[in-house]
Design goal:
Two copies of one chain form a homodimer.
Chain A: H1 3-27, H2 39-46, H3 50-62, E1 66-67, E2 75-76, H4 82-93, H5 99-120, H6 123-138, H7 143-160, H8 164-172, H9 174-185, H10 188-192, H11 194-209, H12 213-234
Antiparallel strand pairs in A: 1-2
Chain lengths: 242, 242
């Protein structure tokens, strides 16, 4: 057996060890924060080496399936969109996915989160969304602060949709928005569109407060098709290309 | 310094090392398959230990940002939806996300992929989608085979949308469909709906072949709202709950 074969064998043992942990979580119907057996348990259960098991635990921790601490047993991990964000950013950085493609997915998803939010939002959520629309207008001369509010605005709507997967996906767009949105606003075309953009955000917030799903979807659609569409067309460099 | 602090410090060093690799990829505009410097380069560049760097490379490989082999330098990794799928399955297995929530996201996304596919599909893609609709009908008495065609049908439409992120997200649903779809078909209600389901798939394929985006979106919507809606309502156990 040469080095290559031994390496491949180790890789498949690590995958097998990872699967054993995920099956353990599923079969025992474990929930976030529940304790998992330590390395030793799986080592004797599976007959793999401690090195293989350590690598499997490392990979599971990177994927946030488990939460490993120091000197304590691992716990079942909570998902928060950051794994999807890491994958997404890598794909954009390496030109596997373009920013206009991401923005089409955002548009598709956020038409739905706005619609759902208008039906499912609590009173506190409606107020929070309106406050963020106001904050975007208030700080519209400070790109960095405005972008922060803008990201929070879209995440608050996703949260108010009360669908945990929509929230995760929308949250995963945030690191990309942090780079792309301020870049976009530096174009002259974008500056001219600022008042329209502020109005659209306000329209979305009002429709959600009024529990009007159709108006909320339409306002979000208008936001993406005018303001954001113009921004994308104004973009140059790695984040442009529409 | 106690053990806990030393552990946390190591964790933050690993994160720093991971960021250094992602910055290297971004700054040098590397693409899938391009070679990265080995552990030794980053060890001396960052002044971290070999153990820290090995852990960082392991985490990056788990997230598919890099592709590590044996005795060769790492390469820039290709994304394929399996990282999102792993995160999604974990979230469903641990009740952080429900199957009806996933199905709402699928419905939202696949209305759009069907619409885009009707505009962007090649001739070969249109034929492939039609063949898969026929295969679903042909093997409709074999749940396992029919599910395989069903998954391939939805992936083929996402591919024909020519948006790489939609394709990744749709692909990430496949492991869940492999479990949920055959379970759903075992209900009596589902069996009664089989001819309607087959017709809907056929309608989607025809609309895409006819380059009719509106009809394609409507047919996919009808597919989700009737067939799949009924399936979800008929489901019990961990994959139900609508």
């Amino acid at each position: 057996m040469n080095v290559q074969e031994r390496g491949d064998e180790k890789g498949s043992l690590v995958k097998k060890a990872m699967r054993a942990v995920t099956f353990h979580i599923k079969d025992n119907r474990l929930r976030v924060g529940d304790t998992l057996p330590g390395e030793g348990y799986f080592v004797s259960e599976l007959g793999v080496s401690r090195a293989v098991m350590r690598e499997a635990f490392g990979a599971l921790a990177a994927l946030q399936l488990i939460d490993v601490g120091n000197g304590r047993k691992p716990k079942v991990g909570a998902v928060d969109g950051s794994v999807i964000a890491t994958s997404l950013n890598h794909a954009v950085d390496t030109a596997q996915i373009t920013v206009p493609e991401v923005w089409d997915v955002r548009r598709t998803i956020e038409l739905r989160t706005a619609t759902l939010a208008a039906v499912s939002r609590t009173e506190a959520e409606a107020v929070g969304i309106m406050n963020l629309a106001d904050a975007i207008a208030r700080d519209s001369d400070n790109f960095e602060l405005m972008t922060k509010h803008d990201i929070a605005f879209h995440e608050a709507i996703a949260r108010a949709s009360h669908n945990a997967l929509f929230l995760q996906i929308v949250t995963s767009f945030s690191p990309l928005m942090q780079v792309a949105v301020p870049t976009a606003w530096q174009t002259r075309k974008a500056a001219e569109q600022k008042s329209v953009m502020l109005e659209r955000h306000h329209d979305v917030a009002v429709a959600i407060a009024n529990r009007d799903p159709e108006a909320a979807g339409n306002a979000m659609k208008a936001h993406f098709d005018t303001s954001i569409g113009d921004l994308l067309r104004g973009l140059a460099g790695p984040y442009g290309g529409l």
